[in-house]
Records
---
Amino acid sequence: MSEITAVVPKCSFKIKTIEMHTCGEPLRIITSGYPDIVGDTILAKRSYVRKNLDHLRKALMLEPRGHYDMYGALLVKPDHPGAHFASLFMHNEGYSTMCGHATLALARYAVDFGLVEPVSPETEINLQCPCGLVKSFVEYDDKRKTSGRARFLSSPAFVFRTDIKLNVPNYGEVTIDISYGGAFYAFISADQLGLDLGKSSIQSIQAAGTAVTMATKDAVILEHPDSQDLAFLYGTIITDGDDAWSEEPTTNICNFADSQIDRSPCGSGVTARIALQLHKGLIDLGQTRSFRSGVTGTTFTGKAVEKTKVSRFDAVVVEISGKGHYLGESTFICEDDDELGKGFVVR
């Protein structure tokens, strides 16, 4: 009996995945089993899976196959002429427009699974994300045939608004900034919420982040010059307030989607935070900073590498580096009569 489907013949799907994590944040790479994805552009594909195939996201991200904080990447055909491949990103609520931890893991995956021809000492991978083309580079040892640490150059990141006054229920008046790093985030220092990232519980940080996100959505209308599909608040990043350049790591915790807590420092969030620090004159172009996850203590490094423009916004290309690790591979099925197998949540 080589496959479970030999004894369980009536299944609504059979999906294969590669399991990875980057700095503790999971990534389920969906490699086969999805129906054809309709759409001439990647944003159209994102819209199609949201409207027509969301039952598969729920089945793969939520229990019993996943959990509340699972994250996934669905490989799709790119429409950008310079891309090697494209990816849609999914989580407990829906579909993101960018994901840094996934991009770092996918760089290794692309080399190791033959999506690109490996070159030593570093291989370039062009990944099309819903936010645009993202160039990644992964270390590769030709003698040992092994991949390693990766880095990526972000799509242009920019600050949307700063010093926004909000009244957050249970927390009072606070001041936030909103910055874009492939997705929009609200930024707030922990002390404004009565929190200490080194001592406060994850539950209290999660509650505060969710409250800030909801208040921001109620008070601020976002816009993105390229597409309104990009104009939504992905979440809130609570920081230690240490934004001026230092050799010491600065800590943050990202609360995104439906109160999902990122185990990593959050690649797109760090991108947006660097754009914010540069905008405020707290760091200079080319200065490398280390960003530590307040959950796992793992770190990404990042730096602003090139100034540019996105319509009326001053923008910057940011380089983020880290490493994804393999966990295994899976084949998932769902029996036709298994209602719980369609996905559920326990919080």
---
Amino acid sequence: MPDLPERAASRAKQSSQNPSQNPSEEPSETEAERRRRRARFLRELAEARELRDRVQPRRAKTARLRHAMRMRTFRW
């Protein structure tokens, strides 16, 4: 654990060298790249949910039943 302050110092040094870039200031990422990154994130999120449902079947079943009840009671 003695190397933790060194890691924190190196992170602070890196963050000072790389200032946070606001997308409105500098459009370094194209719209297509942003959509691809978002699609990849959503795929990984869906995969993680499926994995969680497989390893916790009881919780997944109650969530499905709860969702079905919400859909039945929804009114336009």
---
Amino acid sequence: MTDATDGPEDSTDLAATAKAVIAAALPHVAFDGWSDKTLAYAVEDAGVDPGVSRLAFPRGGVDLALAYHHDRDAALAARLAEANLLDLRFRDRVALAIVTRLELVADEREAVRRGVAFFALPVHAADGAHAIWHTADTIWSALGDTSRDFNWYTKRTTLSAVYSSALLYWLGDTTPDFQATRDFVQRRIDNVMRFEEVKARVARNPIAAAMMKGPQRLLDHVKAPGDTPPPDLPGSWRRKT
């Protein structure tokens, strides 16, 4: 039975608490990482109800790190919604989205660096993969992707790899305005586009197309029930029922 007091107000309070704690946590992350200790400091500094903060971050530091990542993804979606992308080639839209995501955390590089190290730990690797997948899905959704077959997964998997490599490159980039990272992103996307062009040429070849018809038919059936991909299960091919 649901508590009668549960409702939109509670969700709003929880979201507001999360935002306040995330902002208060950033100065501590450089010293204590995305840890329970950082969370405790942030809750105290933000002056929020500890009980509400436990609802917002039930697993402690790991949920704090994920909340920070998702909050910046939400900011990316809002920024892309306001951008004029129609005059850009599609590859340039993707590049712009990746660079914009990095720009949003340009003043928080140490927090991002600590997050990369945190999610590299085996115990947090699945959560790290989820975070990167979430960013890739945010970008594709903002760019209007409507695929609901195997392409839904391949697009996000490919973009996750591109974004991950760009993120690591950016962490060590000292060039003005991160120009080296911008060039790196363009090169990676160009590589992907060349691969897609090869696939398209194969598809136009009658012999190659015939050879791929069987495997492609199988891949197209690897999708979530109801033709709706699971948004919260990175790397998962099927939602369990």
---
Amino acid sequence: MMIDFLKMQGLGNDFVIVDGRTRPIRFSAAQARAIADRRKGVGFDQLIIMEPPAEPAADIFMRILNPDGSEAGACGNATRCVASLVARDLGRERLTIQTISGLLACTIRPDGLVTVDMGPARLDWQSIPLARAADTAHVDLAEGPLADPVCVNMGNPHAVFFVEDVEAVDLPKFGPLLETAPLFPDRANIEVVHVTGPASVRMRVWERGAGITQACGSGACAVGVAAIRRGLVEGRLVTVSLDGGDLIIEWLENGHVLMTGPVATSFTGTLDNSLLDVPA
């Protein structure tokens, strides 16, 4: 079966997007890993399958696979990319995307930026989830120079560590250790952050199942919420600077988190059968 794909990116966080709305498309973990290989495959931070929605209120269902073949519950940058595609198809500026973590309302702005309502930030320890009861604003967890994170669930679990200088952190070393810490039964995305101004922060990210990426939309949301919870920024609007660029994060009074940023298309192609004919 020939499968066409679209390669898109949001702030350098890149995605292989396939359209399964008119015919079912499923990838095994081995197939996802083969496609993710940046030398022998296509390469991606996440593999996205657009499917018919199960919820009547949704316009599309978005399935998210990590490079290791595991399934993710949320990806903010991918949501913006898919929203831009579906909005163009439907000729609308507003639409709703369904994920395994819930429904996401999206708006295409006149300037081309896309805003996604990522839903409420979940802050209780059971919803992260953590393996034990804890104050999620100050979690007793440390590895090397990283300690005292804020934990937030934005459709997937995040641990946000505030440091003096994110560039000085050996993220390839400490990211995987913290991702798989016993405290996180579902593993976790790891963010390191320092404050750059009254309403701005700089972050780097180690994504669960993907490693270091240029940007992480749900991670930027978690970082914005964490900075506001700690009182490190003024107000409820935060500019989060990632390796790939800036995202605007707003934590509304009702608990929902809005993420705004750009999207871009890189190229289109067809997956070769050699990428799909791999042992499980």
